[in-house]
Write a structure and sequence with these properties.
The structure holds two protein chains of two kinds. Chain A is of the alpha/beta class. Chain A has three domains: 178 residues, ABC transporter type 1, transmembrane domain (ABC transporter transmembrane region fold); 114 residues; 186 residues, Rossmann fold, CATH 3.40.50.300. Chain A is built from 21 helices and ten strands. In chain A, helix 18 links the parallel strand 7 and strand 8. Helix content of chain B is 61%, strand content 10%. The longest helix of chain B is centred in the middle third of the chain and has 54 residues.
Chain lengths: 580, 573
């Protein structure tokens, strides 16, 4: 059965509309029976007595009433189910976005971000059919046949018996053929989506195709691939559609058998006319409801798949670390040392510690440079300070208070962060800046832009600060993005600055400008930075050399040069490179 | 409306197939009508207790229609899917044809994967236009016609009433619901787009949002968009329900009308009870044709929107039009750039401003300068992705706008910073550069580009965008392509900029070795092995500010010397 436990749980949170929908379906079924009874009565009268319009008018009136009510109850049933579905979708969106937000950057960056977005948006939309179509149809397919049988048996028990005997054929065939066919169909739809992937690939690589003068030649390739997919898909569909043909035949032949049996018994005088006609009117409805369950079953399938992906995220809610609720003020941060005490961290699923028993005291107002080979744990340490991840062991404290006591918001208020690859939002340059401080004035924005060396560039844009950037707007170069990130840090003006210095792969001139801006930014703040450049490192108050997750060396440039460790070796090898 | 007609025009080659499919759709519903009418005929006739043989025709009819309905439905589904896929093929080829001359200049705004994905989705969704928008009204019209003849055979008055209610169900109700639903589909699409942007920002920018204390802000905006979207979808569902209900009421109206207009005929004996019952059943069955019209109405708006987006793209005028009578590609490959000026659309600052230089055949020239100096623009102009605003580029004394762009590109091998690899095999990715190359030639090219490791993996999938290969391997594949292309002119556009220092060094050697004897133009901002170039051109803010050999430029002690010192004066740890 197409019953997903997680989806059922969601359903139980919104029982009311679905119960109402089922009730409306039941009333609708009663109306359907009443309507058929009236219509058979009218035709019987017309048939036997050729009555005047006046005489049939009461029956016609009732027929009109019942059929109108049936339509209205049907509509109400759908509406209620839809209402419940939308309420569930709203809850799902809230829970999913809340969980994703609470799981934070370590989750958002570990899983493919595209998949998270798809689950959050498309996933929630694809459960719609399960709730708004499959579940109501499931209710209807339980209620309507029952009501019809109860109505038919007293009128014509043989027709009722035929229905009872043939009805199980529909689910039986559905299971027998449906399983294989739906597997094949699914495979084929995957091929179809691969085809559209191929087409997307061609469009994205169009410049490359043109460079090799192959763009025109590939046109036929697209046509050929597309046609091949059509042929193979049609082969599969020929079989897949057999299942619905079988179901349809059970319905129509069932109707035919009932019609013939009624006809023959009427002929023999074993059955009065009106019950026969009444039964015949109801038989197609009986099969229709069951057949539709098959269609809606497939419509709901996608929701079950989507539900799995959504609950993979929702089930991780237990991993969300608990943050404290204490407040802290800027003064505290600028006067107290950050004490890192026996700190360890392990990546999920990895046996090796990324950070192993690290202890370090960072005095307020000093610059600490983290250095070491890649994979040494520099970024992990920064991520722990940023509380993007929680330590496996040990703690970070501000003075004597554990950092985890502070609420996330109050902690972040004291931090300015300049990452190596800053993210720019699909918004105007102004909005991207205002994220750092929502109430910044125009003068403050201008000043930050000047300090970051971005003022002239922004001014040269036709729309200035209102220029859209990111996906849908203009793209900034890597260097410009870094400067924008610097401008954000200037605006935020927080006492603790966490920096990831850009590697030297950018333009040398630009790099020199960036470095100068960074130096200004660092003044008067507590700075912890991942440093790559010798000059930056040399000027730090303290250099911490990490290696394999442990502190290999720590001290000033002079102290470290006096020691024959990694640091001196690295300095010498870089000198050699310059000499070469 | 114009967009809609253009979309319909696209399906014209399939008009006959579509008509056939609509006819079969009509036959399906016709069988349904036949089944119910034959059943009604059968039992009403039986009620008159004639001889059993008199029922035979009814029994046969019931069996026939019972089977034919299922079988025809089967044929209809096959046919309509087949046609849909054909249309999809055509739409893809049509869009590719239209968009090919526009690339890349007019597609610059659609570079991102997400936007292109939306285009592909748009095309995919247009397959609906036939199956869900165009076909149901044709079927409904044919059914209306059929019922007119069946009912009209007995009573014109009854037929008029049936026609009226079918017109209500087929035209008035869809028009009413379309009016009520106006803007719904469009609004839903717009909100979906807004949510996409918000969700991508939220997930990818989660770190920043956290530090700025804006996570709550974004989840709230996302929920708000969701709430608005749900409100619209609720409205759409309400309207859909209204449509179905009104169609149902129209059917009941038709039944009552038949009774009203045919009872007097039955009374007078002009029509017997058998006929009356059959006609009532037939009319009820005929309304099946009107139910899919809800879908037509709801899809049309979304389809027109998708069509508008596509037309907006392909209606752009191509940047580069090939000359009517192209000159043959010249024998000599010296490059002459004269007074070259180029401004990107929407920018008020020229990317290149009066640049002139020449590259003698077989020589090596480097173009250096900081990011944004206009270096890569020269490549785009060389291969005619764009046309210069002013000035000319000539090869062998021939202005390149007199050459066939395809011939030009075949003779210029470009290795750029980011190599696009198709989601195909490594062989197919290599054959792009030389469609007729033998496996032996491919292997040779791989060896020369330092990719011996890929020798036995020609049939391996390169992965989506070359994901199965490292950055170094991707650039080496680009070099293998360059070798295979065997072009007299080579343009290296920051070919090694994204690589780490060790890989870069190795690749620069390979490039140096494999490009011997050709006219080489290398664009770079990283000054490595500059002594290997005969000539160095220094670009700054779109202008040539220095020119000479490495030694001459160092001696000059100007901008170039400054760049050189910046890069080589300090070490890294």
């Amino acid at each position: 059965m197409n019953i997903d436990r997680n989806l059922m749980r969601l359903l139980s949170e919104q029982k009311r509309p679905f119960i109402l929908s089922g009730l409306a379906g039941a009333v609708g079924a009663l109306m359907l029976v009443a309507q058929a009874w009236m219509l058979s009565g009218i035709i019987e009268m017309a048939f036997r007595q050729a009555p005047a319009w006046r005489e049939v008018l009461p029956l016609v009136g009732l027929f009109a009433l019942f059929s109108t009510l049936r339509v209205l109850f049907g509509w109400a049933g759908h509406h209620e189910a839809k209402k419940g579905t939308l309420a569930i979708r709203k809850t799902l969106t809230e829970r999913l976005s809340g969980t994703i937000a609470a799981l934070g950057p370590s989750f958002a960056r570990s899983a493919q971000s595209g998949r998270i977005v798809t689950t959050l948006l498309k996933g929630v939309e694809s459960v719609d059919a399960w709730f708004s179509q499959y579940i109501p149809q499931l209710l209807l397919s339980l209620i309507v046949p029952l009501v019809i049988l109860v109505a038919i048996f007293p009128a014509d028990w043989l027709s009722g018996l035929i229905l009872v005997l043939t009805a199980p054929l529909i689910p039986l065939f559905m299971i027998l053929i449906g399983k294989r066919a739906s597997a094949a169909t699914e495979k084929q739809w995957n091929t179809m989506s691969r085809m559209s992937g191929h087409f997307l690939d061609m469009l994205q690589g169009l410049s490359t195709l043109k460079l090799f003068a192959q763009a025109k030649a590939r046109r036929d390739g697209i046509e050929e691939a597309s046609e091949n997919f059509r042929h193979s898909t049609m082969q599969v569909l020929k079989i897949a559609f057999l299942s619905s043909l079988t179901l349809e035949l059970v319905g129509t032949l069932g109707t035919a058998v009932v019609a013939v049996s009624i006809g023959l018994r009427l002929l023999g005088g074993h059955l009065p006319f009106r019950p026969g006609l009444f039964a015949l009117l109801l038989v197609p409805e009986f099969y229709l409801v069951l057949r539709q369950l098959g269609t809606k079953f497939h419509a709901g399938m996608e929701g079950v798949t989507a539900s799995k992906e959504m609950h993979e995220i929702l089930d991780r809610a237990s991993e969300i670390p608990k943050a404290g609720s204490c407040d802290l003020d800027a003064n505290e941060v600028s006067t107290r040392p950050i004490v890192i005490d026996n700190l360890s961290y392990r990546f999920p699923g990895s046996g090796k510690a990324a950070l192993d028993d690290v202890s370090l005291t960072i005095e307020p107002g000093t610059v600490t440079a983290l250095t070491g080979p890649s994979g040494a744990g520099k970024s992990t340490l920064l991520n722990l300070l940023l509380r993007f991840v929680e330590p496996a062991d040990g703690a970070i404290s501000l003075g004597s208070r554990r950092v985890r006591q502070f609420s996330l918001d109050s902690w972040y208020r004291q931090i300015a962060w300049v990452p190596q690859h800053p993210f720019l939002f699909n918004a105007t340059i102004r909005d991207n800046l205002l994220m750092a401080r929502r109430d910044a004035t125009q003068d403050e924005i201008d000043k930050a832009l000047k300090q970051a060396g971005l003022f002239d560039m922004v001014r040269s844009l036709p729309e200035g600060l209102e220029t859209m950037i990111g996906e849908e707007g203009a793209r900034l170069s890597g260097g410009e993005a870094q400067r924008l990130s610097l401008a954000r840090a200037f605006l935020k003006d927080a006492p603790l600055l966490l920096l990831d210095e850009p590697t030297s792969h950018t333009d040398p001139i630009l790099e020199a400008q960036l470095r100068k801006a960074m130096e200004v930014l660092m003044r008067g703040r507590t700075v912890v930075m991942i440093a790559h450049r010798l000059e930056t490192i040399r000027n730090a108050d303290r250099i911490v050399v990490l290696d394999g997750g442990r502190i290999a060396q720590s001290g000033t440039h002079g102290e470290l040069m006096a020691d024959a460790g990694f640091y001196r070796q690295a300095i010498f090898s870089s000198m050699e490179e310059v000499a070469a | 409306m114009k967009t809609f007609l253009r979309l319909v025009g696209l399906t014209r080659p399939f008009a006959w197939w579509m008509l056939l499919a609509a006819l079969i759709g009509f036959a399906t519903i016709g069988s349904g009508i036949g089944l119910l009418m034959a059943s009604a005929w059968l039992i009403t006739t039986a009620a008159l207790m004639p001889a059993l043989s008199a029922l035979q025709i009814g029994i046969t009819g019931v069996r026939f229609f019972g089977i034919s309905r299922g079988v025809i439905r089967y044929a209809e589904r096959l046919m309509s899917h087949n046609t849909t896929f054909r249309i999809l093929t055509r739409l893809r080829v049509w869009f590719y044809d239209a968009v090919e001359p526009l690339a890349p200049a007019r597609l610059a705004a659609y570079r991102s994967a997400d936007l292109l994905k939306r285009i592909v989705d748009d095309i995919q969704s247009l397959e609906n236009i036939y199956a869900r928008v165009l076909s149901p009204p044709v079927t409904a019209a044919l059914v209306t016609l059929l019922m007119w003849f069946i009912v009209g055979h007995w009573s014109i008055q009854a037929a008029e009433g049936v026609l009226a209610s079918q017109l209500v169900a087929g035209i008035a109700v869809p028009m009413l619901t379309a009016r009520l639903a106006r803007g719904t589909a469009r609004g839903i699409t717009a909100l979906q787009g807004e949510q996409q942007v918000l969700a991508v920002d939220m997930v990818q920018g989660m770190s920043e949002l956290r530090v700025f204390g804006m996570v709550g802000d974004y989840t709230a905006r996302l929920r708000e968009a969701e709430a608005k979207k749900l409100a619209l979808q609720k409205r759409a569902a309400f309207i859909e329900g209204l449509h179905e209900s009104l169609t149902g009421l129209a059917m009941n109206g038709a039944v009552i009308w038949i009774l009203y207009s045919m009872l007097p005929l039955a009374r007078s004996g002009a029509v017997n009870g058998v006929t009356l019952a059959s006609v009532v059943f037939g009319v009820m069955a005929s309304f099946e044709a009107f139910l899919p019209l809800t879908g037509s109405v709801q899809n049309i708006e979304a389809d027109v929107r998708a069509g508008e987006r596509l037309f907006e793209i392909i209606d752009a005028k191509p940047e580069v039009v090939p000359p009517a009578k192209p000159e043959p590609f010249p024998k000599s490959t010296g490059i002459e750039v004269k007074n070259l000026t180029f401004t990107y659309p929407g920018s008020d600052r020229p990317a290149l401003d009066g640049v002139s230089f020449s590259v003698p055949p077989g020589s090596r020239t480097a173009i250096v300068g900081p990011s944004g100096a206009g270096k890569s623009t020269i490549t785009s102009l060389m291969v005619r992705f764009w046309n210069p605003t002013q000035g000319t580029i000539s090869i062998g004394g021939q202005n390149i706008d007199r050459l066939d762009p395809e011939a030009l590109r075949r003779n210029i091998a470009v290795v750029s910073q980011k190599t696009y690899l198709f989601g195909q095999t490594i062989r197919e990715n290599l054959l792009l550069a030389a469609p007729d190359a033998t496996d032996e030639q491919l292997r040779q090219a791989l060896t020369m580009s330092g990719l011996d490791s890929l020798q036995g993996r020609l049939d391996d999938w390169a992965g989506q965008h070359g994901m199965n290969l490292s950055g170094g391997e991707q650039q080496r594949l680009a070099i293998a392509r360059m070798i295979l292309q065997n072009a007299p002119v080579i343009v290296l556009d920051e070919a090694t900029a994204n690589l780490d220092a060790v890989t870069e060094e190795a690749l620069l050697d390979t490039l140096h070795r494999t490009s011997q004897g050709r006219t080489v133009m290398a664009i770079t901002h990283r000054l490595h092995h500059m002594e290997r170039y005969d000539d160095i051109i220094v670009l700054y803010e779109g202008k040539v500010i220095e020119r000479g050999s490495h030694e001459e430029l160092l001696k000059l002690d100007g901008f170039y010397a400054g760049m050189w010192r910046l890069q080589h004066g300090e070490g890294n740890v």
